[in-house]
C-alpha cells in the first residue's frame, strides 16, 4: 500500500533549488564516494575464498541461525537458514562467502563466542585471516565509514548516513520521494529552514532506529528517515485542510481528498505494524516512524516561530488562479452586459484585489468611472491607469487617457502639475509635439513655476533641434518672461 500527498504542483519559474541540491548531493555521493564499495566487496569475497574461513564459519553460521530461531523466536530466519543450506548443497561458494562476510551480527557473534566454537588453533587462524579481511575491505566500505551503526553510534553519522544508499533501486526510490515531497515543503518553509528541518528529521529518525536496535552492528543508510520527516511536515503544514492523496493498493490506484492529518496515524501505524510483523525485510521501519514524528512535531512546536509557514504558500496555484479569474471576470462582464454598472464595479474591484497585476481590470474600472466624470473615482482611476500604462511602456495609451480626462474630468477635479509634466515628457519621447504643447499649457495653469520653467526649456531645445525657429522663439520668449 502506498499513499502520497499530491496537493501542490511544481512551479518551475521558482524551482525548489534546495530539494534539487539534496538530490544531486545524494547522487554524487553514491556515484563517486560509494562507487568504490563494489570493488572492496569483490576483493573481500576473493580474499575470503582464498582462505580456509568458509570451512570454519559455515557450520557455525547454520548453528547461529538455528539458535536465533529456537531461542530468540526469530521465525523470519527460517527462510534464511533454508536458503543458506541450499547454497551449501549446490556448492555456491561465492554467495556463501557473501552471506558470511557481510553479516555484521554474525561476525559479532563469532567474536563473542570464538572460544566456545573453535579449538585454540582454529581460533588463532580465524582471528588472523578474518581480522585482515575486516580491516582491509569491510571496514573501509562507505556504510561502515559513514553509516549509522547503533552499537557504535557517533554524532556525525546521524547526518552522514542520510546521504548514503544501498544500491540503485534504493537511491532512485528515495530521490523520487524526496522530490515529490521536498518541493512542497521547501516552498512552505523556504530553502534554509527546509534544509535544517530535513537534517533534524533524519537525525531524529536515526536516534529512534538506534533506540530499537541498540546493540545492532548493522549500519543504517539512506534518506528514508529524512523523507518520512518531510511527510510528517507536509501533513502538519496543511493540518485539517482537505488535500489530495494518491493511493496505490495492489494494481488499483486513484486519488482521494481527506484531511491532511488523517494520514499521519495511518502512515505511523503502518510502519509500527511492519516493524513487528513484516519480518526481516532490511527496511528501517522505526526510522520511518521516527521521521514522521519528528516532522510533524517540528511544525507543531515551532510552526508559529522559527518554522513558520510562508503566507504565500497557501495562495492558489496559477492554474487555479486562472480558473477563478475567468469565472469572476465572466460574472463581472455579465453584469456589465445587463447595464448593472454599480454591481460590475464592485465585482471588478473585488477581482482586482486578488489580481492587482491584471491591467484589463483597471481598464474596466476606468471606463466605468468615466461614465460619471464628476465623481472623484474617475480622477483616481485615470491617474492610476496613466501610471500603469507608462510603466508598461504604452505611451500612446497614456497620452490618450490624459486627453480624455482633459475633455471630461479636468473641470471637476484638475490633475496635479506632476501629472501634466509626466505626459509632456512622454509626448516628447513619443515624438508627439502637439500633445507636449497641450500638456505644457496645462502645466502652466497648474501654478508650479519650477516645473513649468523646466518644461519650457525642454520645448525650446526640442524645437531648436528640429529647426522649428518660430516655435523655439515663442517658448524662449515665455522663458525670458518667467513663463
Task: Report on the architecture of this protein.
By secondary structure, the protein is mainly alpha-helical. It has helices spanning 17-33, 37-50, 53-70, 77-90, 93-101, 104-117, 120-136, 142-146, 157-160, 168-189, 191-212, 224-238, 263-277, 285-302, 318-337, 341-354, 359-369, 376-391, 395-408, 417-429, 433-446, 449-465, 469-480; strands spanning 2-5, 242-249, 252-259. The chain has a three-stranded antiparallel β-sheet with strand order 1-2-3, with helices on one face. The protein is elongated and about 120 Å long. The relative contact order is 0.07. The mean pLDDT is 91.
Layout of strands and helices, then pairs:
Layout: E1 2-5, H1 17-33, H2 37-50, H3 53-70, H4 77-90, H5 93-101, H6 104-117, H7 120-136, H8 142-146, H9 157-160, H10 168-189, H11 191-212, H12 224-238, E2 242-249, E3 252-259, H13 263-277, H14 285-302, H15 318-337, H16 341-354, H17 359-369, H18 376-391, H19 395-408, H20 417-429, H21 433-446, H22 449-465, H23 469-480
Concise description?
The protein is mainly alpha-helical and 483 residues long. The protein has helices spanning 17-33, 37-50, 53-70, 77-90, 93-101, 104-117, 120-136, 142-146, 157-160, 168-189, 191-212, 224-238, 263-277, 285-302, 318-337, 341-354, 359-369, 376-391, 395-408, 417-429, 433-446, 449-465, 469-480; strands at residues 2-5, 242-249, 252-259.
Amino acid at each position: 500500500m502506498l499513499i502520497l500527498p499530491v496537493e501542490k504542483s511544481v512551479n518551475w519559474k521558482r524551482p525548489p533549488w534546495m530539494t534539487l541540491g539534496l538530490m544531486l548531493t545524494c547522487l554524487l555521493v553514491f556515484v563517486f564516494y560509494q562507487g568504490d564499495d563494489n570493488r572492496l566487496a569483490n576483493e573481500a569475497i576473493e580474499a575470503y575464498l582464498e582462505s580456509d574461513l568458509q570451512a570454519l564459519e559455515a557450520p557455525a553460521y547454520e548453528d547461529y541461525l538455528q539458535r536465533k530461531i529456537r531461542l530468540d523466536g526469530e521465525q523470519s530466519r527460517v527462510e534464511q537458514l533454508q536458503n543458506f543450506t541450499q547454497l551449501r548443497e549446490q556448492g555456491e561458494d561465492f554467495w556463501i562467502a557473501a552471506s558470511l562476510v557481510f553479516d555484521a551480527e554474525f561476525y559479532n557473534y563469532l567474536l563473542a563466542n570464538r572460544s566456545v566454537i573453535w579449538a585454540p588453533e582454529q581460533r588463532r587462524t580465524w582471528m588472523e585471516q578474518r581480522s585482515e579481511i575486516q580491516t582491509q575491505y569491510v571496514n573501509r566500505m562507505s556504510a561502515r565509514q559513514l553509516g549509522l551503526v547503533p552499537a557504535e553510534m557517533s554524532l556525525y553519522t546521524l547526518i552522514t548516513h542520510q546521504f548514503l544508499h544501498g544500491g540503485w533501486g534504493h537511491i532512485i526510490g528515495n530521490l523520487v520521494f524526496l522530490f515529490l515531497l521536498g518541493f512542497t515543503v521547501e516552498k512552505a518553509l523556504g530553502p534554509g529552514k527546509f534544509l535544517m528541518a530535513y537534517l533534524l528529521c533524519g537525525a531524529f529518525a536515526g536516534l529512534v532506529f538506534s533506540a530499537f536496535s541498540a546493540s545492532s552492528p548493522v549500519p543504517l543508510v539512506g534518506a528514508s528517515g529524512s523523507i518520512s520527516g518531510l511527510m510528517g511536515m507536509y501533513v502538519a503544514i496543511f493540518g485539517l485542510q482537505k488535500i489530495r492523496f494518491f493511493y496505490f493498493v495492489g494494481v488499483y490506484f486513484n486519488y482521494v481528498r481527506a484531511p491532511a492529518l488523517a494520514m499521519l496515524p495511518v502512515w505511523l501505524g503502518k510502519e509500527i505494524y511492519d516493524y513487528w510483523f513484516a519480518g526481516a525485510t532490511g527496511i528501517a521501519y522505526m526510522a520511518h516512524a521516527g521521521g514522521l514524528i519528528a516532522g510533524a512535531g517540528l511544525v507543531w512546536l515551532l510552526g508559529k516561530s522559527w518554522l513558520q509557514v510562508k503566507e504565500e504558500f497557501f495562495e492558489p496555484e496559477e492554474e487555479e488562479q486562472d480558473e477563478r479569474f475567468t469565472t469572476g471576470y465572466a460574472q463581472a462582464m455579465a453584469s456589465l452586459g445587463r447595464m448593472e454598472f454599480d454591481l460590475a464595479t464592485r465585482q471588478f474591484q473585488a477581482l482586482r484585489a486578488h489580481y492587482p497585476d491584471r491591467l484589463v481590470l483597471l481598464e474596466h474600472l476606468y471606463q466605468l468611472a468615466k461614465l460619471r466624470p464628476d465623481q472623484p473615482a474617475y480622477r483616481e482611476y485615470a491617474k492610476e491607469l496613466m501610471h500603469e500604462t507608462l510603466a508598461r511602456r504604452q505611451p500612446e495609451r497614456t497620452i490618450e487617457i490624459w486627453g480624455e480626462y482633459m475633455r471630461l474630468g479636468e473641470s471637476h477635479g484638475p490633475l496635479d502639475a506632476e501629472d501634466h509634466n509626466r505626459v509632456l515628457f512622454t509626448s516628447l519621447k513619443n515624438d508627439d509635439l502637439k500633445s507636449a504643447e497641450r500638456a505644457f499649457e496645462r502645466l502652466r495653469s497648474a501654478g508650479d513655476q519650477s516645473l513649468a520653467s523646466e518644461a519650457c526649456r525642454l520645448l525650446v531645445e526640442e524645437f531648436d533641434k528640429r529647426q522649428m525657429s518660430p516655435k523655439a522663439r515663442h517658448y524662449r520668449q515665455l522663458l525670458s518672461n518667467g513663463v
